Amino acid sequence: MTKIHNLGFPRIGAKRELKFALESYWNGESSRNELETFGKQLRRRHWQAQSGLDWVPVGDFAFYDQVLDMSFTLGNLPERVRDFHGDALDNYFRVARGRSAQSAPEAAACCSGVAAGEMTKWFDTNYHYIVPEFTAATEFKLDASRLLEQLAEAKAQGIAAKPVIIGPVTYLWLGKAKDDSYKLALLPKLLPVYAELLEALANAGVEWVQIDEPILVTELDAVWQNAFHTAYQHLSDCQVKLLLATYFGQLAENLGLAANLPVAGLHVDAINGRDDVEALIAQWPADKVLSLGVINGRNIWKTDLNAVLDSLEPIAQLLGERLWLAPSCSLLHVPVDLDNEQKLDAEIKSWLAFAKQKLGELRVLATALNQGRDAVKAELDANRAAIEARRNSARVNNPAVKAALADITPQLGQRNSPYAERALKQAALLKLPKFPTTTIGSFPQTSEIRLARSQFKSGKLDETSYKAAMRAEIARSVREQEALGLDVFVHGEAERNDMVEYFGEQLAGYAFSQAGWVQSYGSRCVKPPILFGDISRPHAMTVEWIAYAQSLTDKPMKGMLTGPVTILNWSFVRDDQPRSVTCKQLALAIRQEVLDLEQAGIGVIQIDEAALREGLPLRKSQWQDYLDWAVESFRITANGVADETQIHTHMCYSEFNDIIAAIADMDADAITIETSRSDMELLDAFEHFNYPNGIGPGVYDIHSPNIPSEQHMVALMQKAAERIPVEQLWVNPDCGLKTRQWDEVIPSLTHMVAAAKTLRATL
Ligand code: GLN
Ligand code: ZN
């Protein structure tokens, strides 16, 4: 009998219930007890949704983040909160979210202000975890209470519970040594605590424990590989069976290591690591479970169940009892329930599966393997029909787009002249001062703007009134920019809900869910648009707004677009063609918008690539291939313009060292980046590379309500000027201003413009 299980269920709730419960608790609108009770209800509901599985994950629920939960389980609280007394859950939220200094009596009762834990991307997903903090002196101490409580809850409900924990090697790898000590040196101190944890679980009657070690799909040096031997040797005499879980990629050179560790079973991602499966089966030990993740936990498409069965049936023959099936990874990365989608086009909906539906697919697979395909004939036939309908749909396939893609030549991504020549022509035309000032695109999204947009969407506001409202907002931002004395203006992005959704809504080939929420971090969720078909642009998307904005001023108005790579990386995309192909389709569509803006007299066009770095593959050996097509896509988008047209790009992140060559290869006339918090250190990468084009290192940290002073910004720019020739420098904020208030933005930008003037006079 083939067994089925799940690695993790989305905890945020089908309607983001956990988000609202958390926020109400944080705002003091509900009690601690209400929050706990709500957590219990949600867990019960989610376990019920997983009924029929042989093993159901327990411990995958977290009020904020599963890595932070693990830190608490291991007693590894950041030093700065260790003397906190008071309630454990409140301390947990303090570590997660930070807390400003409190009033004296409150501080005396518990704890003073504290900085939030650092957050970073969970492998190549859009989920972010709280980074564990270490020092050479870190000690661990087991607190299994949370896990044991949830286990007891599950047991009381008759759930076949399989606790889920993060493995010791991955846990260390995820963290950061605050004192630059060697974090792997903590392993000998960590392992006894894991052994204790497993013993506690065994005592609670647990049979299997899922121990996640996803770093096995990354490139590991010998020391880290060795740590796996040490760790699992140490844990090999525990009284529970360990299912070592890997996901998100291929084991590749770590395959032998993973397959031979002394554990009772191994889960692999049979979607992204499909190429491992044959080799694993060939050497699979007789006494071990092999769990194949055959349902994609990273996308929203139905699985081709008949095709999966074709490949699974011989494997099931061979492995018998030893074969388990599961989604490729935790379902944390997909929305909960497709049944909640009432507005989604019926045809497109018939191609999709969210978390609940994916578990339904798993049940069908198990029944087909265990009882024969006839036992689920109706389901398999319906699945085949859906897969074929999608494959052949005229809405997916647009021959004109495929033809345009086939016609791409290297010339398409090539500017007419090199940067130095373009820069002269642009300077003659734009007549910008030294240290030109600009902003990144958005201005504050006031409640009036949001209201107008949502009323227009729901039909309460007619198009004429909506457009009038947006134009008024654009006019306001132009007036403000005139008064501030900025050099290159923006229209402010009032009409945009989101930098990807706005374009997705206007491109053919995109669909939108109502409740397709995915947790990004803590209570924050994103609702990625669904890119289902060949991409085309039926009409201009931004020209009307930008041209209107330009008509109000003599200053250059920057056209504002989102780039193809960012649109790709922040969408659920097709699984029926390579990402590179989808990206180039997006590039061709946005290229048309660039050319239309130029046609309309817009002389400066910014193409945001905020998510370019996010798309880097997990393995460095695959980076170049990604960067090649990502950069080519950007170049196709941007480089059809005349020399006189100035192309900007914008990226808000802090690591450029390893991708600087690719950034230079994009050949934008100016790039604006996020630097204010790094004290300009990340300009080092640009300096060492002799980056030749314009750069605007952000001098205003837009994530903070603080109003930066003129001196502060001058000082930052002076540091920049130590690294980059002043002719190349722009003065601008770190990112868009949409989350700020006008009363913060006006003084900050006033100081910024003054700083630029000071710099012009002194440098
Ligand atoms: N143009 C966008 C804005 O200003 C850029 C946002 C981003 O980089 N995340 O809002
Ligand atoms: Zn940004």
TrEMBL record:
<feature type="binding site">
    <location>
        <position position="570"/>
    </location>
    <ligand>
        <name>5-methyltetrahydropteroyltri-L-glutamate</name>
    </ligand>
</feature>
<dbReference type="InterPro" id="IPR002629">
    <property type="entry name" value="Met_Synth_C/arc"/>
</dbReference>
<comment type="pathway">
    <text>Amino-acid biosynthesis; L-methionine biosynthesis via de novo pathway; L-methionine from L-homocysteine (MetE route): step 1/1.</text>
</comment>
<keyword id="KW-0677">Repeat</keyword>
<dbReference type="InterPro" id="IPR038071">
    <property type="entry name" value="UROD/MetE-like_sf"/>
</dbReference>
<dbReference type="Pfam" id="PF01717">
    <property type="entry name" value="Meth_synt_2"/>
</dbReference>
<keyword id="KW-0489">Methyltransferase</keyword>
<feature type="binding site">
    <location>
        <position position="614"/>
    </location>
    <ligand>
        <name>5-methyltetrahydropteroyltri-L-glutamate</name>
    </ligand>
</feature>
<feature type="binding site">
    <location>
        <begin position="440"/>
        <end position="442"/>
    </location>
    <ligand>
        <name>L-homocysteine</name>
    </ligand>
</feature>
<comment type="function">
    <text>Catalyzes the transfer of a methyl group from 5-methyltetrahydrofolate to homocysteine resulting in methionine formation.</text>
</comment>
<protein>
    <recommendedName>
        <fullName>5-methyltetrahydropteroyltriglutamate--homocysteine methyltransferase</fullName>
        <ecNumber>2.1.1.14</ecNumber>
    </recommendedName>
</protein>
<feature type="active site" description="Proton donor">
    <location>
        <position position="703"/>
    </location>
</feature>
<feature type="binding site">
    <location>
        <position position="608"/>
    </location>
    <ligand>
        <name>L-methionine</name>
    </ligand>
</feature>
<feature type="binding site">
    <location>
        <position position="121"/>
    </location>
    <ligand>
        <name>5-methyltetrahydropteroyltri-L-glutamate</name>
    </ligand>
</feature>
<feature type="binding site">
    <location>
        <position position="493"/>
    </location>
    <ligand>
        <name>L-methionine</name>
    </ligand>
</feature>
<keyword id="KW-0479">Metal-binding</keyword>
<dbReference type="GO" id="GO:0003871">
    <property type="term" value="F:5-methyltetrahydropteroyltriglutamate-homocysteine S-methyltransferase activity"/>
</dbReference>
<feature type="binding site">
    <location>
        <position position="652"/>
    </location>
    <ligand>
        <name>Zn(2+)</name>
    </ligand>
</feature>
<feature type="binding site">
    <location>
        <position position="493"/>
    </location>
    <ligand>
        <name>L-homocysteine</name>
    </ligand>
</feature>
<feature type="binding site">
    <location>
        <position position="650"/>
    </location>
    <ligand>
        <name>Zn(2+)</name>
    </ligand>
</feature>
<feature type="binding site">
    <location>
        <position position="735"/>
    </location>
    <ligand>
        <name>Zn(2+)</name>
    </ligand>
</feature>
<feature type="domain" description="Cobalamin-independent methionine synthase MetE C-terminal/archaeal">
    <location>
        <begin position="435"/>
        <end position="757"/>
    </location>
</feature>
<keyword id="KW-0862">Zinc</keyword>
<keyword id="KW-0486">Methionine biosynthesis</keyword>
<feature type="domain" description="Cobalamin-independent methionine synthase MetE N-terminal">
    <location>
        <begin position="4"/>
        <end position="318"/>
    </location>
</feature>
<comment type="similarity">
    <text>Belongs to the vitamin-B12 independent methionine synthase family.</text>
</comment>
<feature type="binding site">
    <location>
        <begin position="440"/>
        <end position="442"/>
    </location>
    <ligand>
        <name>L-methionine</name>
    </ligand>
</feature>
<keyword id="KW-0808">Transferase</keyword>
<keyword id="KW-0028">Amino-acid biosynthesis</keyword>
<feature type="binding site">
    <location>
        <begin position="16"/>
        <end position="19"/>
    </location>
    <ligand>
        <name>5-methyltetrahydropteroyltri-L-glutamate</name>
    </ligand>
</feature>
<dbReference type="GO" id="GO:0032259">
    <property type="term" value="P:methylation"/>
</dbReference>
<dbReference type="InterPro" id="IPR013215">
    <property type="entry name" value="Cbl-indep_Met_Synth_N"/>
</dbReference>
<dbReference type="InterPro" id="IPR006276">
    <property type="entry name" value="Cobalamin-indep_Met_synthase"/>
</dbReference>
<feature type="binding site">
    <location>
        <position position="608"/>
    </location>
    <ligand>
        <name>L-homocysteine</name>
    </ligand>
</feature>
<feature type="binding site">
    <location>
        <begin position="524"/>
        <end position="525"/>
    </location>
    <ligand>
        <name>5-methyltetrahydropteroyltri-L-glutamate</name>
    </ligand>
</feature>
<dbReference type="Pfam" id="PF08267">
    <property type="entry name" value="Meth_synt_1"/>
</dbReference>
<feature type="binding site">
    <location>
        <position position="674"/>
    </location>
    <ligand>
        <name>Zn(2+)</name>
    </ligand>
</feature>
